[in-house]
Amino acid sequence: MPRSGIALLFGVCLLAGCSALPERDGNRPAPVSAPPGEVILAAQLASHINALRTVVQGSPAEQAEVMAGARADYEQAQVGPAALRYGLLLAAPAHPARNLELAQQVLREALAQDQLLSPPERALGVVELQRVDTELRQAKEIARLNAEAQQQQRDRQQAAPPANAALTRRLQTAEDDNARLRKALDEALRRLEAIADIERGLEPAANTEGRRP
Prior knowledge:
Layout: H1 3-18, H2 36-57, H3 60-77, H4 80-91, H5 100-112, H6 119-211
Helix pairs in contact: 1-2, 2-3, 2-4, 3-4, 4-5, 4-6, 5-6
């Protein structure tokens, strides 16, 4: 839970614990104590806040201890404040035991019997469950986009060999054409050379015939 959320919950705790106190001035007697139910509610909210603070900011040993206690309470009760606390702790950021999927499940279980929760606890559970749902949807969408990008990359890599093969075939065809042209040129040169040899062999006979009386 972000620190602003913890601060807001702490404010709710203070209000819940102090809302029943009458106004004080110099002419009035000391205020009466808050009703026991509100005292219990304030203590319960303060307990949730302290657990969240420890899980987010505590040492690894403190984090593990709080998570283990919350899990044991949840496994014993499965509903009510114990389920709410365990779900809140599972969804809290920046600790090794964070598990959004399990947090979603536990928070839904807690809210399924919300009559066991106080109004502030119900409100907190609803808000936190909505945040967890949103984060999971975003993570799922990011995973889908990454999978599509990887598939497109694989498709491009698989399409590359045929393209290279086609280029290789075109290069081979060009080389074969050049070889045929060179062969034809060599053949033409040989024929020209043969014709030139024949012409050179006829020249003496032609000169002899020209000198006869």
